TrEMBL record:
Descriptive protein name: Multidrug transporter MdtC
Lineage, broadest ranks: Bacteria, Pseudomonadati, Pseudomonadota, Gammaproteobacteria, Enterobacterales
PANTHER family per the UniProt record, alphabetical: MULTIDRUG RESISTANCE PROTEIN MDTB, PTHR32063
Pfam families (alphabetical): ACR_tran (PF00873)
Entry-linked InterPro entries: Acrflvin-R (IPR001036)
Organism: Enterobacter agglomerans (Erwinia herbicola)
Superkingdom of this protein's organism: Bacteria
GO molecular function list: xenobiotic transmembrane transporter activity
């Protein structure tokens, strides 16, 4: 089981809707349709956004386990120390997708939806997941602790 918990993989997956919404909004605003090429762009986008969330959550969990930090301090430190690698990964993907989005010439209309989906999704997910991932991490962590306490009381009563 990933991270020895059911909660933290859900935390990582919670970053994906912002990427999808960003890609769909960018396609809608640019007047492009959701075709197979745009779906390929969304799949690429999901991989990048998921990796960014894994970097943050993995670092926070390691800080909790190895350094004995509280979840709030661990996710705060993860946000500070993982911001630059996350930003570099996102910018590299975004700058790689810009030529697809802005290209002209033969076959450019085929590549435009791929670039637009990637750029729109990366921009929105970068802005939102840096704020939402720590909040969801702490929310799910508190939910897990409350559930453990409830089960401990139930087992003690029996």
């Amino acid at each position: 089981m990933l991270y020895e918990s059911f909660i933290h993989p859900i935390t990582i997956l919670s970053t994906l809707p912002t990427a999808g919404v960003g890609a769909l909004l960018a396609l809608m605003l640019s007047g492009n349709e959701l075709d197979i090429v745009a779906i390929i762009g969304i799949i690429l986008l999901i991989g990048i956004v998921k990796k960014n969330a894994i970097m943050m959550i993995d670092f926070a969990l390691a800080a909790e386990r190895e350094q004995g930090m509280k979840p709030v301090d661990a996710i705060y430190q993860a946000c500070l120390l993982r911001f630059r690698p996350i930003l570099m990964t996102t910018l590299a993907a975004l700058l790689g997708a810009l030529p697809l989005m802005l290209s002209t010439g033969v076959g450019a209309e085929l590549r435009h939806p791929l670039g637009i989906a990637m750029v729109g999704g990366l921009i929105l997910s970068q802005v939102l997941t840096l704020f939402t991932t720590p909040v969801i991490y702490l929310l799910f962590d508190r939910l897990a602790h409350a559930t453990r306490r409830r089960f401990a009381r139930t087992e003690a009563a029996e």
